[in-house]
Design goal:
This protein has 2 domains: 99 residues, Serine-tRNA synthetase, tRNA binding domain (Helix Hairpins, Orthogonal Bundle), CATH 1.10.287.40; 307 residues, Bira Bifunctional Protein, Domain 2 (BirA Bifunctional Protein, domain 2, 2-Layer Sandwich), CATH 3.30.930. It is α+β, with helices and mostly antiparallel strands and 430 residues long. The strands form 4 sheets. It has an 8-stranded mixed β-sheet with strand order 1-9-10-11-14-8-7-2. The longest helix is centred in the N-terminal third of the chain and has 34 residues.
Length: 430
């Protein structure tokens, strides 16, 4: 998030940049934020002066005469009460200021397309050829039914709507996709790390879920714990409050975890099958790098390239979207989405989301590093991108690779992870 000094010195510019993300003065009043900061600065100065004066009086008490001592003590007590009141007021103002700062979004990249919502995202390229089927295609739900790959109705009785239970070869395929992606990320220098799916509240503020998306997060009040919607949440706070050395950077994590999202705003949308479920598995790319735009943008492109490699290896046609300012959300500086072709829906659907967060998260988690050049301590930059998220990625996978008999072909690069089989399904050649 922008530093308060930068906001004060560039208020009109900052307000205009926030407007590109859809933030109005009603959402975040910079005049009020700046006024609060001024009051806090003035109170800190006043409190410091009172504290110094009180310390001087305390020192005088020892050498004062019996007649002078009661007057000095009385004045010291009065100053102490005045100081206490100012410190209480300062604590209250600081809490208000901190809460407002948590609502401050990141500034968007000057290269990001300006737009109000997802209808104004920009297609940068199409990759791969859509399959030409000479038979009536089946959607992923029909393919699962034909091959006995899921227990959707039964699991709904047990766990409620928007849950899934896949089995047999499809369950093996889901795990194979994650292992393939993990091996690819290892080859690119990532550390593989499995992380918990539960978190204290503070990391949610650090990552940016809070205060912006509280209705999307599962909360367990008895334990005062939250369920995580992505390994990014945990990885972003793993090095919180540390000062790294620049030669430790970049730190590359391939984080795997079960994930949980309430999908509160998704009523009636994509609720059939595997597209939008409450619990899923995700392998996440997460990068901590030096606090330099050129460096983090280099990694942003690298993360995007890796995800494109994955979809190409899976032989799934896709397109690359650059997300506009009004759709990228508070933490993002710049964002790309990858959308895979879904034949049954005759459209592209998101499978990967690739974001440069710059120092916005690092400021919230106090993640810093000491620069080699001058020894100064700076905030790091963080980036994230999907490696693979299932079961959503299974939808374009099995639909694009389906055969007329309901069997599904396995792309060559994934076959070793499936025991060498080229096709799965009841009618597949064994």
């Amino acid at each position: 998030m922008p530093d308060i000094k930068f906001i004060i010195e560039n208020k009109d510019f900052v307000q205009n940049e926030f407007a590109k993300k859809g933030y109005t003065k009603e959402d975040l009043d910079l005049d009020e934020l700046i006024l609060l900061h001024g009051k806090i600065t003035a109170l800190k100065t006043s409190s410091q002066a009172l504290s110094e004066e009180k310390n001087k009086l305390s020192n005088l008490i020892k050498s004062a005469s019996p007649d002078e001592r009661p007057l000095i003590i009385a004045k010291s007590k009065a100053l102490g009460e005045e100081l206490r009141q100012e410190q209480d007021a300062l604590e209250n103002l600081q809490a208000q200021f901190d809460l407002m700062m948590l609502k401050v979004p990141n500034l968007p990249s000057p290269d990001a397309p300006i737009g109000k919502d997802d209808s104004e995202n920009v297609v940068r390229r199409y990759v791969g050829n859509k399959p030409n089927f000479d038979f009536e295609i089946k959607d992923h739900i029909e393919l699962m039914a034909i091959n006995d790959w899921a227990e959707l109705e039964r699991i709904a009785k047990v766990s409620g709507s928007r849950t899934y239970a896949i089995k047999n070869e499809l369950a093996k395929l889901e795990l194979a996709m994650h292992m393939f992606v993990i091996d690819k990320l290892r080859a690119h220098g990532f550390q593989v790390i499995t992380v918990p799916s539960i978190s204290k509240e503070k990391p949610l503020y650090g990552q940016g879920y809070l205060p912006f998306s509280r209705d999307e997060v599962y909360y367990l009040p008895q334990d005062d714990i939250y369920l995580s919607g992505t390994a990014e949440l945990i990885l972003n706070s793993l090095r919180a409050d540390e000062i790294l050395q620049e030669n430790e950077l970049p730190i590359l994590y391939a984080g795997f975890s079960p994930c949980f999202r309430r999908e509160a705003g998704a009523a009636g949308k994509d609720t059939r099958g595997l597209v939008r479920v409450h619990q899923f598995m995700k392998t996440e790319q997460f990068v901590i790098c030096a606090g330099d735009i050129a460096e983090s943008e280099k990694w942003h492109q690298k993360l995007l390239e890796i995800s494109e490699e994955i979809l190409q290896d899976f032989e799934i046609p896709y397109r690359v979207l650059e997300v506009c300012t009004g759709d990228m959300g508070a933490p993002k500086y710049r964002q790309y989405d990858l959308e895979a072709w879904v034949p049954s829906q005759d459209c592209y659907r998101e499978t990967h989301s690739c974001s440069n967060i710059t120092d916005w998260q690092a400021r919230r988690t106090n993640l810093r590093y000491r620069a080699n050049a001058d020894g100064k301590v700076r905030f790091a930059h963080t980036l994230n991108n999907t490696g693979i998220a299932t079961p959503r990625a299974l939808v374009p996978f099995i639909e694009n690779h389906q055969n007329a008999d309901g069997s599904v072909n396995i792309p060559k690069k994934l076959q070793p992870y499936m025991g060498g089989v080229k096709t799965i399904g009841k009618n597949a050649e064994k």
